[in-house]
Every structure is written in C-alpha cells, then in structure tokens.
Amino acid sequence: MGRIVVGIDGSKSGDEALRFAIEEARLRGAALRIVTVWSTPSAAYAGMAYVPTFDLREAEEQAANERLATARALVGDAAGIEIETVAVEGQAAGALVAEAEGAELLVVGSRGHGGFTSLLLGSVSQQVAHHAQVPLAIVRAPREERGKR
Questions:
Q1: DSSP string for residues in 92-140
Q2: At what angle do helices 92-99 and 123-131 cross, to 10 degrees?
Q3: CA-CA distance, 38 to 64, in Å (whole number)?
Q4: From CA 134, how far away is CA 102, in angstroms rounded?
Q5: Do the domain assignments include residue 126?
Q6: Residues spanned by the domain of 116
C-alpha cells in the first residue's frame, strides 16, 4: 500500500489540501500521513542569543497537536484509510520534503498563514515545489474561502 503525505497549518488552503489528500488516498487505496510543522517563532529570539523557554516551546508543540486533532476531526471516519498524524519541529518546507520521502504524493496548500496574500504561491509551497523528490499537488482554497480564518 502506498502513502500520501499532506502538510497542514490550520489555514483554509491547508484544509483544502487535506480534503484533496483524503480523496486521493481513497482513490489510490493509500495510507494518509497528516503532518504539521512547528517551531519557536523567530521573534522570540529578538536578535539576541536566546534559548527559548520550555513554556514557549511547549505552547508551540501544543498548538501543533491541536491542529492535528482538528484535522483528525475533519477526516472523520475515513473508512478504509489508514491515517497517521505527525507533529514535527523544524522548518516547514524541509520537514515536509523529508516526511514525504518515498511517498506516492505530497499535498500542500497554496497559501498558509504567512503574509503577502496576493502572491500566487506561499513560500512553503514554493520551496516544496523546488525540493520535493516525489509527485506534488498544490491545492488552492476556493476563492470565497481565501483570506477567511
């Protein structure tokens, strides 16, 4: 059985990527690996040599696990699909590319929670497009859903 990896970040595009990945997993009879990536915000460093406090790291990891719980609820009872959820600490694009190694397909949203909403592709999806060694699907949220949330 193959494996489809989908990256989520809590955005509308991420939700659409998850929906797309669920359907692809059903069509292909593949397992689904839902991945979210977390890190300590760079603003916490404030340009100084700073070691993030355990509380800040813990809060970021907890937020990632909450995203996975929300995604799991969105998947619901996906009959016949083996589902795994993973929260990874690191840089989003690199972590997604690594998690997708050997997968049939990597699925990401076109825009996440970053700035510059007028850009066609977000920086993570653009980096993944350049570095993924597996087939890639970049999914956009419907026009009326973009920017909400």
A1: HHHHHHHHTTT-SEEEEES--S-S-TTSSS-HHHHHHHHH-SS-EEEEP
A2: 40
A3: 6
A4: 7
A5: yes
A6: 1-38+48-77+109-139
Q: Residue 7: how many CB atoms within 10 A of its CB?
A: 29
Tokens of 137: 């699907």
What is the total residue count of the chain? 149
pTM of the model: 0.81
Sheet holding 31-38, edge to edge: 83-89, 31-38, 3-7, 105-109, 136-139
Looking up residue 6, the CATH number of its domain turns out to be: 3.40.50.620
pLDDT tens-place values along the chain, 149 residues long: 799 999 999 988 999 999 999 999 999 999 999 999 998 765 555 555 555 555 777 888 999 999 999 998 888 776 678 999 999 999 999 999 999 999 999 999 987 555 444 444 468 899 999 999 999 999 987 765 545 54
